Please model this.
Amino acid sequence: MHIMEGFLPTPWWQIWFAVSIPVILFGIHKLNRLVNEKREILPLLAVAGAFIFVLSSLKLPSINGSCSHPTGTGIAAIMFGPAISAVLGIIVLIYQALFLAHGGLMPLGANVFSMGIAGPVVAYLIYKAGMKANLNFYAVVFLATAFGDWATYVTTSVQLALAYPAGDVLTLAGFMSSFGKFAAIFAVTQVPLAIMEGAVSALLFKYVVNVKSDILVEMKVIEDKVVKKLKGISA
Amino acid sequence: MSRKLELIVLAILLIFAAQFIYMSSTTDAEYGGADGEAEKVINDITGGTYEPAAKPFWEPPSGEIESLLFGLQAAIGAGVLGYFFGYYRAKKNYENKLGYKENGKSEGDRHSL
Model:
């Protein structure tokens, strides 16, 4: 999903930076406040960041014979909200841009927007809606992270289609035609990978709930009665 | 402890592993990166006129080095995950066994780290 270095023309890479930077700054501000108020969330923050590190390094083969990687940002979005996920996401993106020539510094703004902002926002909204509807907690985590992953790739397709509309001039028809082409590549590859990401994320959440549910309750990620129910089932 | 979720996840992983083995042995799929595919589409749309505006500063000199760095990234992440899950698990274990509770609050450590 990373747009490669040099493949996002002016003015698009500047535009996406302009969109992403305020969110990153807000995320850093939120992160500082959270860490100052609650030192005990630091390990959890490290876990969420590490999860992104692991998942986004795994280039998995997919059913159409191409490889792509999951994003892993859904967990952070559910625990800490989209703004903080953006901060965690940019760390990984900078690592990959500098050391792996994967992504790049110019499209960094666009990549942060798709992986660190759009995906987590979708994951977060689905999570909140699902918990309100009283669905099974793990099913909600699965749906939220899987759709968050898809949203990331849909966003990348939108970004590329905006920069490369068919017929060189940005018209709706040209945009849709290009969007269809980019989405077709990512959709086939990403659908199975998103399912895997959702499944693994649900599993990770199970372990977090097992060992450290009190912090999640305190951060209002999950309600006490849901924890009791989960532990009642899995105890 | 119920292992239902683990079994479901394992089943999903096995399905993907099976289709991967099937696909890679019956077809000659390349398993190239999807990002590279996007590059081809950009070429198609622009009629091959597009030149990348910038080159990466530094590219891994070979596929092996690239794998090394991706592996390193995964290892750093996995190490951190393992450390903190171990930390929490042991902490919870000792609290339960020894009846040690900070502030008398249940299950929690308000002042850890």
